[in-house]
Specification:
Elements lengths: L1 H19 L2 E7 L10 E4 L3 E4 L5 E4 L10 E5 L6 E4 L7 E4 L8 H5 L5 H10 L1 H4 L5 E25 L6 H10 L3 E14 L4 E12 L1 H21 L5 E5 L6 E4 L8 H10 L7 H13 L19 E11 L2 E10 L5 E8 L5 E8 L4 E5 L2 E16 L5 E25 L8 E28 L2 H6 L9 E3 L17 H4 L9
Parallel strand pairs: 1-7, 10-21
Antiparallel strand pairs: 1-4, 2-3, 2-5, 5-6, 8-9, 8-20, 9-10, 11-12, 11-19, 13-14, 14-15, 15-16, 16-18, 17-18, 18-19, 19-20
Protein name: Carboxypeptidase-like protein
Keywords: Signal
Length: 498
Amino acid sequence: MKSLYTTLLLLLSYSVTLTAQVKSYQVLDKKTNEPLPYATVEFAANQGVITNEEGVFSYDPATIATAKDSIYISAMGYERIGVWIDDVTEDIIYVSPKAIELSSVYVSNKNLSAEDIIELVADNLENNYADDYLSRTLFFRQADYNDLTKMNIAFEKSTIEELNKKFIDSVVGIIPRKSSYFREVLGTLHGNASEQKFSIIKGAELYDKSNDGSMDALSEKLESILKKNVKPNSYLKIKSGWFLGTKVQMDSIFENNEEAAAVKEEVDKPKENQFLDNRKSVLKDLLNSNLVDEDATLNVIHKSGRYAFTLQGHTLINEQVVYVIDFEPKRGEDFKGQLYINTEDYAVVRVDYQNVKNLKRVKLFGFSYTDNRYSGKTIFAKGPNGKYAIQFMEKIRGARFGVDRPLKIIEKNKFVSGRRKQNELSLGIDVGAASKTKYEVVVFDTQPLSADQYTATTEDKTITPKYMEQYDPSYWQGHTIIEPNTAIKEFTVLENGW
């Protein structure tokens, strides 16, 4: 009994020590008590992070060189402050707004209009922003949220006994109404806009695997029913309303078919062959989609004539006075937002944006698709080469889908005597869904990279992400990341799924 008691004490002590290694703080406005999202937190050991949308950041003493050190916090419109981290006895750090002292450069340029400033931004793009090879140590999080808003399947007719209303209802019951999928990766991205290599340190995935298991079981049961009732040399004709339909050979859905086996092999390919390529591809699209890129969807600089600009005043970002300029569409463009522009070199150091209308909307023959969310913010910082590069990016994409059509699946077979028509399943489908994806990228360090150094860089494709049923902060101990929001922290796989 004493041994058991001692063991429990040791385990408890170890647990407390492990938890205490990572400390979380919230940065608040001293006057309003409101959180300060996306504030820059710099560690004295040449490291830094960005607070999340709740003003929270984490600090791991193991990553700091000395036992007692300071951190520096700066936020838009606030004074940059230094804090001895060991002197912070609570988990809240307050910062106060700072009165702005105008630089002589700003005073001399105070008569510039908003349009003049935007023109100077465009003229200085090439000088201000990095287009060479870079080495960027970063943390990347992607959060996918799916919501099945409507799922009505009306059973009408089936000549196969097992494919009855009860079976259709069970299918509807298995499909999850809400699901979330979180992916995180830490590593160094090498390259330029056109080519990249990604050296991954570690990654994680957080989602409910039981959903996959349910769908796999459903697929196996459906295949068993088809094999039992449908002739292998038949084909299925799939029709929706008055559409002529599509033919599918029955052999192609059975496992012994070569084409089906090839598809299955691709799906079952080891995860280490997919994770790196997928994360690198998404990062490439994200980092090339900012307003500096000429082909960017957010075209406020390159097609400035389509926007109206209003100079609202000025504020501070990292001790630098910046112009604050609002923009909104005047020729049917898609976005509104704010630009924060350095008063000395006319670089955009931050942009906040959101769409004012649907980017795309299609509704035809019972099918609908709406691209309804494109918003976010991008923060740029000047690197050792004197040019600006992305320090932080948040981007949110959203869409809605819908199908409201009859569906008829007919088995036909020309090798049997009599009627070709063998079996039929008729349904009425009325389905609606919404999806949202949030991307977060924080770059901790940006360094110039030569072409030879890029060529010599290698990728390790064997690194696999760790699967988690609930968020585990200890997984990232010893590494700097952007603090997860409450939704991620509280995610957990329930016994029967979501």
